[in-house]
Design a protein that fits this description.
single chain; three-stranded mixed β-sheet
Length: 314
């Protein structure tokens, strides 16, 4: 749907440019080319990301969504550069602008459609936990906001007859598009490089802190990686050293079930069980522990900073 809509809106915007010969409208039309190409690749990446894990892809195919976001961000960035170049050219070689009312009407139509479709895609991305849908939806919303700004500027130009406003609008929109392309590139590269998602780490820490059991003496070295709509979490959990293997397995499974229940995402956990040591007694909550060497005299609150450290929290 986004792909077909993008093609129609692109044609409408280029029609508006041919009517008006406005450099600012051409800016908006050029960005629509990015929308069409990005939507096409997004469609393919969502299809590929939905495929189940296999022997060659033990973590699934979700990483392709980061490539989709990278492509979209790169195209937006290039479009921003081209737009700024065209605007600078027209400073020295201005072009006559006309038929603004007709062109503004066509642009207003595209802005409304982009905003409605973008809002729908953002809502769907939250339900499906899809980074590609979120990026595409945010891009369409951004396009709608830039169209509103463009319409205000064109109206002002129509009322005042100050044709240099067209160049200023083009430069402003080009800079805005360039910045949004950079943000998407930054996000995609972070995902491809397995950069830790501090927001997700904070959510996991909040869940563990809220529902923690006394047996879970310590949680540390927690890392979260995103693979499309799925998450992968590694962490260490410190348990009483006198628990047998069956009891350890039960506690590890309880941590797994807790995260999957409250995180609202398909999550795979690899949990390493650590035995407690005497230094843990100072913050251990276990009641009636038969090997306690000292009474508990402090309590450690699990947050994203504490829980991600690769060390027991003595």
């Amino acid at each position: 749907m986004a792909l077909a809509t993008g093609i129609v809106l692109m044609l409408v915007k280029f029609t508006a440019y041919l009517l008006t010969n406005s450099n600012a409208i051409l800016t908006d039309a050029m960005e629509s080319i990015v929308n069409v190409v990005a939507s096409g690749f997004a469609f393919y990446s969502i299809h590929l990301a939905a495929r189940p894990k296999d022997q060659n892809h033990p973590y699934g195919h979700g990483k392709v969504e980061f490539f989709s976001v990278f492509l979209e961000g790169g195209l937006i960035f290039i479009a921003g550069l081209l737009i700024l170049g065209k605007a600078c050219y027209n400073i020295f070689f201005p072009e006559q602008v006309g038929n603004l009312v007709e062109g503004m009407g066509l642009l207003a139509f595209t802005g409304v459609v982009n905003f409605v479709l973008g809002t729908y895609m953002v809502a769907q991305s939250k339900q499906l936990n899809s980074l590609t849908l979120l990026a595409d939806g945010k891009h369409l919303q951004t396009d709608a906001y830039s169209t509103v700004g463009l319409l205000v500027g064109l109206l002002l130009m129509h009322l005042t007859g100050l044709w240099w406003i067209d160049i200023v609008l083009s430069i402003g929109l080009g800079t805005y598009i360039l910045f949004n392309g950079y943000k998407l590139l930054r996000k995609s590269i972070a995902g491809l490089m397995d950069e830790s998602d501090t927001k997700l780490v904070g959510q996991v820490a909040g869940i563990l802190q809220t529902y923690r059991k006394d047996d879970w003496i310590d949680v540390h070295n927690l890392r979260v990686q995103r693979y499309g709509h799925e998450l992968h979490i590694d962490c260490h959990v410190t348990l009483p050293n006198y628990y047998d293997l069956n009891r350890v397995h039960d506690e590890v499974s309880a941590v797994d079930a807790l995260i999957n229940k409250h995180l609202h995402a398909d999550t795979e956990l690899f949990i390493h069980a650590d035995p407690c040591v005497p230094a843990c007694c100072q913050y251990c909550r276990v009641k009636g522990c038969p090997i306690r060497s000292e009474a508990q005299h402090k309590d450690i609150m699990w947050d994203k900073k504490i829980i991600s450290k690769n060390e027991k929290h003595f």
